Amino acid sequence: MEDQPLRAALRFDSGGWRRFAELGSVYAPEWWKRTSPPVIAGIIFLLGTKQRATVLRNQRQVRGPRSWLRERWDAYRVFAGMARSITESMEQWGPHPRPIERSIVGAEIMERAAAEGRGLVVVTGHFGSWEVGARMLATLGPRVNWVTASEPNPTVRKFVHEMRSRHGFNVIYSDRSVLSGLPILQALRRGEIVCIQLEPWGALRGTHELSFCGRPTRFQLGPFAVARLARAPLVATFVVRKGIRSYEARVVGRYDPRTVAESVAALEAVGRSYEALVRELPHQWLMFEDVWTESEVPVPVYEMVPQASGLRRR
Fold this sequence. Notes:
alpha/beta; two-stranded antiparallel sheet; 11 helices; 9 strands
């Protein structure tokens, strides 16, 4: 339709708004960086009716039913966490990054896996700030690759790609070719790090059903499949915000799947760790897509890399 480009440019996730947000995140005074994210989050919370309803459903499944006011306050906290995450991510990826406090629980697991030189799959989720987490991975030495899908809003794709690919990071877009798994395997065989998120949003091929926060849903088996095919270690890591410019990466386990059954077992173990973290800090679960659907359609297990989820889902 003729008005689609204009509508895309006016959406709150458009390239124009992202560039405006980057200016504030990089060049604004400190008082603005600290006070504006909760206010902007409140505006988006009021205007983004679809996203608000989705967050309410997801949070209700994790926390259980509560009062009308309490549910909306907790949902707003997710929006506020997202705003803070975006602000600090843009600041870190910009030309004048401020110092941040970073700590890694289980760092020795990650360091040993990266030092083996067989490549490393890092699987994570929409928690805290995975962009800041990627900057932590850069300290390990090997080149870091992000596996993600293209932004749905075309006005923001160039801007987001330039931001993601600064400082030597590589981006592998999983939705641009049926052969998107090949660059992932090639990166691993060069001894590089590949970072992939878990959530698939729906019954896609290459997923496996798990019980998550009391209901079945599907998670990607792809990261575990590529680790098996490349014979590379896989480390599950989630990033937690501790405060302003303060993050903690939690390494929850290492896995070396060599069979399909071992890949499934590793996914199930990571799913349990992810669920425990979501229940511990539900307001940091930056999930704006429905995780549970009314009916799950059974699908077979494929040895493939499914369409990966990324920042476009946020």
